[in-house]
């Protein structure tokens, strides 16, 4: 894979369970990869059934597969996180559909790799380095570069939308909690997302279980019909 490909296809290195860059990536028998903690938590729910499935392709495994770290994938993800790729400016030049680095000057602005929810700015590989090297900036929250950065900020208080109001079913900032949403049922946005993902996984498991039950019923009916045909063939007088 070329270095340009690594930069352009970051979604391939995100866990489909937590939707973030893979942490201690492991690859299961069907070939899909997940964070170790994510897939272990997903499979813990299947311990009673003893049948374990892939959240993406639904292939099942028995017994529970042994997880081993994918070292090659871990190295690629680490490079994405630390911005250590040495890509020429020509390869990173922003296309019209790309998010542009806010700190590049001149006519050839580079494509932004990450957006900072604290600085409210997007950074190319070069200008992103300070967020990995300067202690105060290391604490900032970085996400994949997005043109909708302002949508993650409270329009009233200009602060990050880090809280979810269950009363009003909307994301709010901490200042909102003290003002117009005071006394409402609130949780962190991360908690709400985790619970929604958990509910989604449970729903997917139920759908998968229903599909398996239907397949079993269809097979049983087909077997009964085949048995009846055989019986009629050898015992036509029984009709």
UniProtKB/TrEMBL annotation:
InterPro entries: E3_ubiq-ligase_TRIM/RNF, Znf_B-box, Znf_RING, Znf_RING/FYVE/PHD, Znf_RING_CS. Residues 149-189 form the B box-type domain. It comes from the Eukaryota. Keywords: Metal-binding, Zinc, Zinc-finger. Residues 15-58 form the RING-type domain. The keyword Membrane does not apply. PROSITE patterns: ZF_BBOX (PS50119), ZF_RING_1 (PS00518), ZF_RING_2 (PS50089). GO terms for molecular function: zinc ion binding. It holds the Pfam family zf-B_box. PANTHER family: B-BOX DOMAIN CONTAINING, E3 UBIQUITIN_ISG15 LIGASE TRIM25-RELATED. This is E3 ubiquitin/ISG15 ligase TRIM25-like.
């Amino acid at each position: 894979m070329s270095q340009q490909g690594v930069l352009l296809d970051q979604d391939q290195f995100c866990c489909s369970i937590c939707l973030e860059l893979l942490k201690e990536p492991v690859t299961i028998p069907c070939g899909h990869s997940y964070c170790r903690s994510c897939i272990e938590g997903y499979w813990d729910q299947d311990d009673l059934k003893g049948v374990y499935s892939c959240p993406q392709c639904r292939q099942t495994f028995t017994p529970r597969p042994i997880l081993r770290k994918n070292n090659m994938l871990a190295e690629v993800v680490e490079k994405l996180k630390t911005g250590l790729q040495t890509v020429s400016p020509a390869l990173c030049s922003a296309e019209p559909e790309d998010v542009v680095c806010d700190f590049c000057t001149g006519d050839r602005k580079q494509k932004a790799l990450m957006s900072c929810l604290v600085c409210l700015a997007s950074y190319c590989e070069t200008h992103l380095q300070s967020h990995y090297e300067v202690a105060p900036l290391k604490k900032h929250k970085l996400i994949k570069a997005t043109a909708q950065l302002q949508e993650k900020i409270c329009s009233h208080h200009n602060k990050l939308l880090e809280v979810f109001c269950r009363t009003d079913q909307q994301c709010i900032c901490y200042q909102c909690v003290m003002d117009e949403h005071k006394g409402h049922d609130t949780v962190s946005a991360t908690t709400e997302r985790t619970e929604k993902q958990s509910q989604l996984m449970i729903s997917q498991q139920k759908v998968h279980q229903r599909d398996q039950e239907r397949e079993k019923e269809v097979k049983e009916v087909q077997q009964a019909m085949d048995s009846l045909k055989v019986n009629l063939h050898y015992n036509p007088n029984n009709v």
